[in-house]
Amino acid sequence: MFMIRPGLSIVLFLALRGVRKHAFSSFLAIFTIAMAAGLFLSTWKINDETRRAFNHSSSGFDAVLGARGSKLQIILNSLFHIEASPGNLPWEQYEIIKNTKGVKEAYPIAVGDNYLGYRLVGTEPELLTHHEWKSGHLYEIQAGGRVFSPLAKEAVVGSFVAGKIGLQVGDQFHPYHGLNFKEENKHRDIYVVVGILEATGTPADRVIWVPIKGIQLMDGHDKSMSHSLSAVLLSLKGAAGFSLDMKYNKQGNVATMAWPVASTLSSFFDKFSWFQKVLELVAGMIAIVGALIIVLTLRSSMNERRREFAILRCLGASRQVISSVIVLQSLILACFGAFSGFLFQYIIHFFVSYIIRENTGVLMHDFSVGIMGAYVFGAVLLIGLASGVLPALQVYKAELSENLKQNT
Amino acid sequence: MLHISNLKKGFQRTGEIFLPVVSIDELVLEKSKMVAIHGESGSGKTTFLNLIAGLLVPDEGKIYLDGIALHELTESKRDFLRATSIGYIFQSFHLLQSCSALENLLIAMSFGGQANQAKAKEMLDLVGLKDRMSHKPGDMSVGQQQRVALARALINQPSLLLADEPTGNLDAQNAQNSLNLMKELCASTGASMMIVSHDPYVIHAFDHQVAWDDLNLVSKHQTCS
Question: What is the fold of B2-224?
Answer without folding.
Answer: Rossmann fold (3.40.50)
